[in-house]
Specification:
single chain, alpha/beta, six-stranded parallel β-sheet, two-stranded parallel ribbon, 19% strand
Amino acid sequence: MFFVNSFLITGTSSGLGKYLYANLGGISLNREKIQKNGAEIIIHCAFNSENNPKDSDQYYNDNVLLTKRLTKIPHTKFIFVSSVDVYPKNSNRHTESEIIDMHNVESLYAKTKLLSEDLVKKNCPNFLILRCSALLGKDSRRNSLIKIIEEKKPTLTLSGDSISNYILHEDVLSFIKAASEKDLQGIYNLASSKNITLKQVTDLVKKKVTFGDYVYNVGNIDNSKTVSISKVFKKTSREIITEFVSHNTVNPTS
């Protein structure tokens, strides 16, 4: 039976944080007001994901320094929502035990995620780091997949050859519940069992898309450790997208 006395959740205005807050309750945290009384479990979802931040100080404060402040709040378990983007972009199969060289991490977003992971490891004896692939839910932040689904004539900066991996908000919630019940610790790759290209996505949802030139490749992510806890992660990205579209009414925009 799943029961936790109190949650503190960040990033509750949108995305996964909003979904978890709606389904778990607890206290919503923001950058301006950090709760000091503590909680049984802190779930840190908030993150500034700008690709080219104009204010580097603010970006660092929104991400790394916020994480450091949160780890100082009294808690019994700290769950940090990270990203599979922390892995180097190569052909290796990436497992949670991999030692990652910061010099091989490409984006600023991924570097700050990795720095935040290190703070959680150092400051939280009972930590759980969830390296998630692209997240889908009714409150998802806009990404290429959402644009393809919602817009009548989608135009993307990404190439159709771009390779992504998708998981559902509800499946992340299921994993968090299981992890809390079992008091799991360490790092878990939350990803589906098979990637998908954006061109395959357009064929799946029957949309004509104008693609760009930039090729993104999520990489080869090993999710076997996660599947051993939650079998829902056996689903492929194609199955995830089909499930997402069937459960969400889409009103195409111009």
